[in-house]
């Protein structure tokens, strides 16, 4: 149906023009209002009926529409319609009140589904060209965020599902920043079942010390990695040790476990015992997957220098060897992913 003198504009509603779900019916009313360039106000709205009147109702315009739920079919349909508008178009601004999230979402959804990276500018210009009114940038931005969530899932829900796809371990490390303001970057990195590296937390602190590590690890445990049985792989920094051994930190066994990065252990070892061969023997012992293989390399290390073996034995085996990790490392012997 078309209204004479208003090319391309709908004349009004027939018995089936607004038939469908509640969302479809209201979308039809709003779209008509936008196309016609008029405003209307809702005078009644509940789970069974929806009544709208022209904003100029009583001032010469008699436009009114009543939609009702037909319960036997579960569809909404037009029950009463006073049309057409006898008032002049009232919207002279670039925006329109009815051009809300629901209308914009219905229009841009196919574009977002085809390309989630489509820019807000493109969506805004397309919406303006289609409806003849230009919504605000923020309205289109918010609508796109909701559209992405409807298509691909809610960001918060997706983030909360992240641990179920990751190995139950995090690798933590710190690195000095050499910019104008200095400081240290602390990071926590996880890895999923496909070996994709996932940064899960970071903090900018004044330096690596017990206070900064305690701050970082307490928030990491509380907000990001609360699951039980988690393994933390790190170097042997005293600040990390103090934070992980705090009684109220949540990092003590059996709630969580700790393991050392063998690269850092070997570096500490090399400070006392020189020579690449000795270091290699220690690393081979750490990577050994069975107790027999571990003692094979440890015996060779002892034959080289008993002091080397004594040095290694002073560190609890479960902290640096693979054969005593009870499968918690998943083969991660270093903090290289962080």
TrEMBL record:
Annotated InterPro entries: MULE_transposase_dom, Transposase_MuDR
Span of domain Transposase MuDR plant: 27-77
MULE transposase domain mapped to chain residues: 170-268
Protein origin, superkingdom: Eukaryota
Pfam families attached to this UniProt entry: DBD_Tnp_Mut, MULE
Coiled coil: none
Protein name: Uncharacterized protein LOC107467229
Phylogenetic classification of the source organism: Eukaryota, Viridiplantae, Streptophyta, Embryophyta, Tracheophyta
